[in-house]
């Protein structure tokens, strides 16, 4: 592909050739004040639709699966609706040369429509935008394994807008007003000051991109007098994290694990994404786990949760030896009462949180659980996990100091 690009460039002369070199990877600038999760949602929707982006006018995905992949609580349809509304209100704009070397400018809403019905999310892109999004020379898909590492919406926005220029090594010069719009801080009086913009957005976002992703960025500024009027980002690959790139070759498609994923309804690109993100043995293990379950209505949704939560069959338990001394019976009874009271207190704390907060709480807690069996028990039982009770109590005690006063297990 790159050799073909160079041949095409050699056929142009004068200003056209200079323009084609400058924009041989055209950017689609996405404006709007999207949150981190909304940006992730946009990328997941594109990933899901990519294989049929220009052959089908609309696309579908199970709503609960979509929530799991993005990081929403699977029952939080209100947040999903608000996010879809934001994507429909967000514009994508491009300014580039077409195949004949003619200038082309265009603008489109990021989603032309979206609807939720019977547990299915249906959505569409405008034909013009779909054509641009499907062309790898124009728009680069974001690897979900890299996306999930971001914790800042500004950093993910910067990564998205820079990664599309990775082959040219530079974004080219952006007016400061355009950069504010891309970062979603236009209209903010605070960020009208370049000092604040640089300290709170540029420096922090560049640091996270360089630490988190498969590219390294270096900002450069152009001044008019003492005022910064334009900036650009020099881009090079991050050799330490280049392994996170997805392999789009045919090799993965020849594997047994890939064929098994396709067989249960996983899309081509998502199957390759999972194999790249995990290893084949891990994915095979979750496929085997799925095979051992009966009555699974949505294999793709179940596999999404199994891969994320490391579902596995529990080890065989040793036979319980009864200890029936009066003292031991009394002690066990007291412990059961304390544990029941602690679990009730946990459930009360959880019920006071919003659905999205609950999901964030779960992800935060799981990140502290090192033992795979304990993670699996939490994935099955949630906050009622007996294997994690001590850690759960400590977690919520940190969240709500004094919440368990008088309920110590001793």
From TrEMBL:
GO-annotated biological processes: DNA replication initiation
InterPro entries hit by this protein: Initiator_Rep_WH1, WH-like_DNA-bd_sf, WH_DNA-bd_sf
Domain Initiator Rep protein WH1 per the UniProt entry, residue ranges: 21-162
Taxonomic source organism: Puniceibacterium sediminis
Protein name (Swiss-Prot/TrEMBL): Initiator Replication protein
One term of GO molecular function: DNA-directed DNA polymerase activity
Similarity comment: Belongs to the initiator RepB protein family.
């Amino acid at each position: 592909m790159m050799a073909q690009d160079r041949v095409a460039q050699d056929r142009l002369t004068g200003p056209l050739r200079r323009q084609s070199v400058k924009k041989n990877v055209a950017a689609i600038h996405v404006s709007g004040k999207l949150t981190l999760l909304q940006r992730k949602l946009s990328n997941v929707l594109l990933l899901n639709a990519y294989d049929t982006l220009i052959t089908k006018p609309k696309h579908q995905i199970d709503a609960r699966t979509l929530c799991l992949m993005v990081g929403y609580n699977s029952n939080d349809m209100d947040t999903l609706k608000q996010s879809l509304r934001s994507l429909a209100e967000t514009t994508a704009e491009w300014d580039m040369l077409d195949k004949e070397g003619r200038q082309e400018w265009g603008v489109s809403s990021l989603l032309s429509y979206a609807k939720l019905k019977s547990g299915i999310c249906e959505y569409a892109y405008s034909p013009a935008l779909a054509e641009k999004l499907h062309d790898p020379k124009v728009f680069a898909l974001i690897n979900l394994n890299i996306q999930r590492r971001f914790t800042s919406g500004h950093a993910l926005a910067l990564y998205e807008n820079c990664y599309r220029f990775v082959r040219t090594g530079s974004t080219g010069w952006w007016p400061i007003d355009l950069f504010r719009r891309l970062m979603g801080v236009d209209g903010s009086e605070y960020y009208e000051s370049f000092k604040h913009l640089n300290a709170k957005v540029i420096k922090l976002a560049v640091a996270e991109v360089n630490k988190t992703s498969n590219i390294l960025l270096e900002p450069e500024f152009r001044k008019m007098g003492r005022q910064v009027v334009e900036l650009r980002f020099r881009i090079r690959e991050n050799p330490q994290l280049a392994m996170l790139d997805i392999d789009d070759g045919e090799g993965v498609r020849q594997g047994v694990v890939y064929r098994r994923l396709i067989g249960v309804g996983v899309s081509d690109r998502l199957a390759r994404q999972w194999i790249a993100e995990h290893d084949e043995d891990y994915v095979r293990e979750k496929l085997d786990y799925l095979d051992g379950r009966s009555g699974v209505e949505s294999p793709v949704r179940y596999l999404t949760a199994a891969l994320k939560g490391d579902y596995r069959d529990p080890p065989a338990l040793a036979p319980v030896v009864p200890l029936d001394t009066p003292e031991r019976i009394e002690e066990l009874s007291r412990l059961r009462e304390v544990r029941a009271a602690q679990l009730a207190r946990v459930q009360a704390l959880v019920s006071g949180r919003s659905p999205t907060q609950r999901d964030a709480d779960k992800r935060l807690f799981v990140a502290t659980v090192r033992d795979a069996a304990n993670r699996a028990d939490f994935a099955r039982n949630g906050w009622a996990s007996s294997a994690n009770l001590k850690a759960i109590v400590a977690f919520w005690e940190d969240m709500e100091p004094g919440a368990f006063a008088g309920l110590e297990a001793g």
